[in-house]
From TrEMBL:
It comes from Fictibacillus phosphorivorans. This is Aminoglycoside phosphotransferase domain-containing protein. SUPFAM superfamilies: Protein kinase-like (PK-like). InterPro entries: CotS-like (IPR047175), Kinase-like_dom_sf (IPR011009). GO terms for cellular component: endospore-forming forespore.
Length: 326
């Protein structure tokens, strides 16, 4: 891991000294991100996560405690330093520690991996209803309609000044039209009912069911990691995001969803609001907003390939929905 990615880190010597004070003899370390470090020690391998606010750190530790010790792992959880402290202040962050979980992320082009992800989300949702009310009330919530409206507005803003290549230029108006159609047909009443029901049942979402936030160890259980985007919103929003992430790998085929899904997942495809929401190209907006904001050529090329790869299949899928719902 390239140590040069760190920003304002206080040097190897001070870091190693601090780890030693905590009872960890570090052999090697590196950075995933500025505030996420892996360390190899004589006691084993760990991941340190840095928080700029103690409130955020404490909330994540409380959430972690809820999932700790489950016989069938549901979430990767934090642990203590050898001196039994949960956190340590170093540099500009408060650092919590978790084991380095063995395993791989999921590959959404593999049906077994997609099924494993479905089961992991179901287990997470089922257990998460046990969250104590005081902790549940600390979680943030959001309006899906507003979140998506903001994302579409950001894409329109970036798209105006973007230097589109000859392949992308003809597609932009259609990509924008899909988002506008989905928001214009958004079933506010159904989603509001869903949100009220979810609050009464204390439903929470993981919020980022991307392939790298799953851990699959050999052929054993698959579980989720990362507490960053937990929210007090309907669990259906996790399923909507999961569908949006896996459909591009399977030519936008509902038949494939039937093969890989369970009842928790597939029941949402019968709901009008959910099907209309599948038209909204949130993945394209998310990736393009990030790429166009940075102006990074490699990132722009990668998102271009991602967009073009399944565009015709996505278009057929969307047109079918539009025809059915209009």
């Amino acid at each position: 891991m390239n140590r040069d990615v760190r920003d304002d880190f206080q040097g190897d010597r001070l870091f190693l000294k601090k780890m030693n004070e905590l009872g960890l003899e570090v052999i090697d370390f590196g950075f995933f991100r500025e505030n996420v470090i892996w360390i190899k020690t004589k006691q084993g391998k760990f991941v340190l996560k840095g928080f700029s606010r103690s409130e955020t750190c404490n909330k994540q530790l409380k959430l972690s405690k809820l999932y700790h010790g489950q016989k069938q792992r549901i979430m990767g959880t934090y642990t203590s330093y050898p001196n039994q402290k949960k956190t340590v202040q170093f540099g500009k962050y408060i650092w919590a520690i978790m084991p380095f979980y063995k395993g791989e992320g999921l590959h959404f082009g593999n049906k077994d991996d997609v099924k494993a992800g479905v089961e992991a989300i179901s287990r997470f949702h089922s257990f998460s209803k046990n969250i104590p009310l005081p902790l549940y009330e600390q979680l943030s919530s959001y309006s899906l309609f507003k979140k998506w409206s903001d994302r579409l507005d950001a894409f329109k803003f970036h798209a105006r000044s973007a230097n589109w290549n000859h392949q992308m230029r003809p597609l932009i108006s259609e990509i924008i039209m899909w988002g506008e159609w989905s928001l214009n047909h958004f079933d506010h009443e159904a989603v509001e009912k869903l949100e009220n029901k979810a609050y009464k049942k204390k439903e929470i979402t993981h919020g980022d069911v991307a392939p790298h936030n799953f851990v699959k160890y050999k052929e054993k259980d698959t579980y989720l990691i990362d507490f960053d985007l937990f929210a007090a919103v309907p669990q259906a929003f996790d399923w909507l995001q999961y569908a949006n992430r896996i459909l591009p790998f399977w030519h936008w085929s509902y038949e494939t969803m039937e093969e890989v899904g369970n009842e928790d997942f597939l029941k949402w495809f019968t709901k009008r609001w959910f099907v209309i929401s599948l038209v909204f190209p949130t993945d394209l907006y998310r990736e393009w907003n990030r790429a166009l904001k940075t102006g990074d050529k490699e990132m722009i090329d990668a998102v271009t390939r991602f967009t073009l790869r399944d565009f015709s299949h996505r278009k057929k899928f969307i047109e079918k929905i539009m025809k059915r719902m209009s």
